[in-house]
Amino acid sequence: MKFQLKYLQNRGPFPISRGMTKLQQLKGHLRPGQVYRREELAQWSNAIDRHLRQFVDDGTFTKLARGLYLYPKQTVFGKAPAEDHKLVETFLKDRRFLLASPNAYNGLGVGTTQLYDKTVVYNHKRHGRFSLGGRTFDFRQKPSFPRKLTSEFLLVDLVNNLDRLAESKEEVLARVRERIASCDVPRLHRAAREYGNVWTRKFFAEALTADMTPHVR
């Protein structure tokens, strides 16, 4: 019976029968690897706080933050941690967000080499640092951001966050100007206009104008 129950848990929600206890019925609604909010789980329990304590105590749930729980997926290496995307989506109760990291700047070829233990979440609802599952996420509320990371957005984002980087500002900006020559100029111009702060928009407006000016020998 234990093997059968474990098999069903790894396959996802299983049929609920009258012979099950309330705790077993609640478990029957769960999907391995999914992150849940307390209010979502409460629809399947008439004693949700007691059931949550039991699930945390017996290892069924991993508590990620107040009111936020992971039903971990079992692997050969043990319990898998929550996926960032699922964790953030459940926390925000919104699918409109973009995960980013300053480490992504290192692939742009503009002289950044530092490694940062930080995940930035651009979103429309929350602002501030939040600890979720033992990790710190830097939520930044923005009016607009792309659906996915692009090199043009990352260049704009780098200049937006220049004061947060460890490298020399002057050297990085000089490399960014050089990098513009190999960029899709219309896309970079659009990214700067849509996602740049005031100073960043001014920087790219001047840099792009200079790059498009014919050089006279």
Walk me through the topology:
Layout: H1 2-11, H2 22-27, E1 34-37, H3 38-41, H4 48-57, E2 62-65, E3 68-71, E4 74-75, E5 78-79, H5 84-92, E6 97-100, E7 119-123, E8 128-132, E9 135-141, H6 151-160, H7 169-180, H8 185-195, H9 198-212
Parallel strand pairs: 7-9
Antiparallel strand pairs: 1-3, 2-3, 4-5, 6-7, 8-9
Helix pairs in contact: 6-8, 8-9
Indicate the low-confidence ranges by residue numbers.
1-9
CA-atom Rg in angstroms: 23 Å
Q: Give the spatial strand order of the biggest sheet.
A: 6-7-9-8
Mean pLDDT level: 88
Beta fraction: 15-25%
Task: Sketch the major β-sheet.
Answer: 4 strands, mixed
How many domains comprise the coordinates?
Answer: 2
Query: What pattern of helices and strands is seen along the backbone?
Result: HHEHHEEEEHEEEEHHHH
Helical proportion? Answer: 40-55%
Q: So how many helices? A: 9
First-last Cα distance: 84 Å
The shape, in one word, is: elongated
Secondary-structure-derived class: alpha+beta
Oligomer: single chain
- Count of distinct strands: 9
Description:
The chain is α+β, with helices and mostly antiparallel strands and 217 residues long. It folds into two domains: 2-82, Arc Repressor Mutant, subunit A (Orthogonal Bundle); 85-212, no CATH class. The chain contains nine helices and nine strands. It has helices spanning 2-11, 22-27, 38-41, 48-57, 84-92, 151-160, 169-180, 185-195, 198-212, and strands at residues 34-37, 62-65, 68-71, 74-75, 78-79, 97-100, 119-123, 128-132, 135-141. It has a four-stranded mixed sheet, with helices on one face. The chain has a three-stranded antiparallel sheet with strand order 1-3-2. A hairpin with a 2-residue loop joins strand 4 (74-75) and strand 5. Helix 8 (185-195) runs antiparallel to helix 9. The longest helix is centred in the C-terminal third of the chain and has 15 residues, at 198-212. The termini are far apart. 22% of the residues are buried.
